[in-house]
């Protein structure tokens, strides 16, 4: 539980420091909070689509450079 909380806290920190726009970061943070809360009380992360969806949402939202930015 402590490791899960640390990973979630780190993800929120990375989203906070992300160069993405505020709506993208707030949406990603809110959408990732729901599975985190459910994982605290049950086995939500044991289902592959939930874990993969969280990763697919967290990756682009916390990327340093927006996709298609060139350079």
Q: What amount of the residues lies in strands?
A: under 5%
Using the CA coordinates, give the radius of gyration. 13 Å
Give the averaged pLDDT, no decimals: 81
Q: Report the principal-axis shape.
A: globular
- The N- to C-terminal Cα distance equals 40 Å
Major sheet characteristics: none
Beta strand count: 0
The helix-strand sequence is: HHH
**pLDDT under 50 segments (min length 5)?**
none
How many DSSP H or I helices? 3
Amount of helix: 55-70%
**Which structural class best describes the helix and strand composition?**
mainly alpha
What does this structure look like?
With 71 residues, the protein is mainly α. 69% of the residues lie in helices and 0% in strands. The longest helix has 20 residues, at 22-41. The radius of gyration is 13 Å and the shape is globular.
Which SSEs are present, and which pair or pack?
Layout: H1 2-16, H2 22-41, H3 48-61
Helix pairs in contact: 1-2, 2-3
